């Protein structure tokens, strides 16, 4: 060994950059001379870095040393940002990490260190960080940085960036359709800070909340938030909000308001407007008794329908055919089933749209019963139940499942034994859901009454007592798993 430079391997975890470099160099049995050849820095400078005599070594030189010694990137950067730098240096390291996105946990640590810069104004620091985040393509990293901005802004009383951080966090999280109820509440929480947002941000927030509420079948909120955009927005956002409010009024049964908003919507010049107006006219005519006109409108629409609206047109036309007992025409609509499934087979399909698929299976099951294909009907009702449960619409799931019970009461054949266990399992799951949620009990009661399906004893007991103690979860009448 040269110059007596080799010593026993450092056993403790290195606490400084110098210790870290020496630890890995000795472990790899590399002399300073060899390291000098690898990184192009003279041995004396390398020795001073190891001894901690260079207070702020060049970052890129350290990366070269780390590469030569196989020092984990995370270790070298984490120690480097702790030795005290100007904010510009920390920010340049932050940008370096953003260029690769290879170390996401490190990015947030560097950003936090940047915000700690003592010589800079806290508002300027958080503003600079906020402006950088929008260019990041990784949504998980964006979220972690917005969380950092929110926490930092709260602790420093920077209200505009509490608002902006919460707003941007919501606009990302609302795309996670597995957490729609939770993220909807976080979106509404942004309203506490809405006056700190720009006019454009306010429009996007209210529109996002309107669509979110509609997806959760909360039509009153969809109208409330949408009307803000109708009043204050412009262009496509205003047009889309008008359409969303129109749809919400339709589902609330207020067809006067629905027609009023549809008329406003029809005036917009965008290419998608005519398709949506045509579809809604069919919906309104069907609900207001003009069934023959509605059927002709939907059939005309299906001759050149958009993939986006296909499932809506087919399910409503299916419903209209069943209402006039035209089972032949209803069955003809099954040719669209594969295309409908394809049209919703993506991560951005909303719960509302998935509820249309569940409704389609319910209608298909009713048609199968009326054409004496009971086994196929049972399978359709099970599919409908599962689709509704997947999106948390448990009241309608129970309606679909109890169509099977209703068929038994009406003296139709029992399901085959292989379906019995599945049916009873779904029934048990729905009972348990209701046992933990009095509001769901009320929704189930209302849904079954509307569908004219006999209310089971267990649900009636829950409704009367609003208590779940002592209630046993039964099998459906006549069904016994073997």
Automatic annotation (TrEMBL):
Origin superkingdom: Bacteria
Coiled-coil boundaries: none
Residues annotated as domain HTH cro/C1-type: 21-76
Molecular function terms, GO-annotated: DNA binding
InterPro entries the record matches: Cro/C1-type_HTH, Lambda_DNA-bd_dom_sf, TPR-like_helical_dom_sf
SMART domains reported in the protein's UniProt record: HTH_XRE
Protein name: Helix-turn-helix transcriptional regulator
Organism: Paenibacillus alvei
């Amino acid at each position: 060994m040269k110059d007596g430079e080799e010593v026993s391997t450092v056993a403790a975890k290195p606490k400084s950059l110098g210790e870290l470099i020496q630890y890995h160099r000795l472990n790899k049995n590399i002399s300073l001379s060899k390291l000098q050849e690898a990184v192009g820095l003279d041995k004396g400078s390398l020795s001073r870095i190891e001894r901690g005599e260079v207070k702020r070594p060049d970052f890129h030189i350290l990366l070269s040393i780390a590469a030569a010694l196989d020092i984990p990137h995370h270790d070298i950067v984490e120690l480097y940002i702790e030795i005290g730098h100007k904010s510009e240096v920390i920010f340049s390291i932050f940008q370096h990490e953003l260029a690769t996105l290879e170390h996401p946990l490190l990015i947030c640590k560097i950003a936090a260190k940047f915000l700690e810069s003592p010589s800079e104004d806290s508002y300027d620091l958080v503003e600079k960080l906020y402006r950088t985040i929008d260019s990041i393509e990784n949504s998980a990293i964006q979220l972690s940085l917005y969380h950092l901005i929110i926490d930092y802004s709260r602790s420093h009383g920077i209200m505009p960036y509490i608002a902006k951080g919460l707003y941007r966090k919501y606009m990302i999280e609302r795309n996670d359709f597995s957490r729609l109820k939770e993220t909807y509440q976080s979106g509404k929480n942004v309203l506490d800070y809405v006056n700190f947002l720009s006019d454009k941000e306010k429009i996007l927030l209210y529109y996002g909340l309107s669509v979110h509420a509609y997806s959760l079948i909360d039509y009153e909120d969809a109208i409330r938030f949408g009307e803000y955009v109708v009043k204050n927005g412009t262009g496509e956002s205003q047009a889309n909000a008008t359409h969303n409010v129109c749809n919400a009024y339709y589902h609330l049964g207020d067809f006067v308001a629905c027609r009023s908003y549809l008329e406003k919507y029809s005036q917009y010049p965008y290419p998608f407007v005519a398709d949506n107006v045509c579809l809604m006219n069919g919906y309104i005519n069907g609900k207001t008794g003009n069934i023959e006109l509605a059927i002709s409108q939907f059939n005309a629409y299906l001759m050149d329908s958009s993939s986006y609206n296909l499932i809506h047109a087919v399910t409503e036309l299916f419903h209209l055919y069943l209402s006039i007992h035209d089972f032949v025409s209803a069955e003809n609509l099954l040719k669209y089933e594969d295309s409908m499934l394809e049209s919703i087979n993506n991560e951005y399909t909303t719960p509302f749209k998935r509820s249309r698929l569940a409704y389609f299976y319910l209608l298909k099951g009713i048609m199968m019963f009326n054409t004496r294909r009971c086994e196929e009907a049972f399978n359709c009702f099970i599919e409908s139940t599962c689709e509704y449960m997947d999106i948390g619409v448990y009241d309608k799931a129970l309606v679909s499942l109890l169509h099977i019970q209703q068929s038994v009461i009406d003296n139709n054949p029992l399901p085959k034994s292989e379906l019995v266990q599945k049916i009873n399992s779904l029934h048990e799951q729905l009972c348990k859901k209701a046992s933990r949620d009095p509001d769901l009990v009320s929704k189930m009661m209302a849904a079954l009454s509307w569908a004219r399906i006999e209310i089971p004893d267990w649900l009636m007991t829950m409704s009367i007592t609003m208590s779940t103690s002592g209630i046993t979860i039964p099998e459906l009448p006549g069904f016994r798993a073997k």
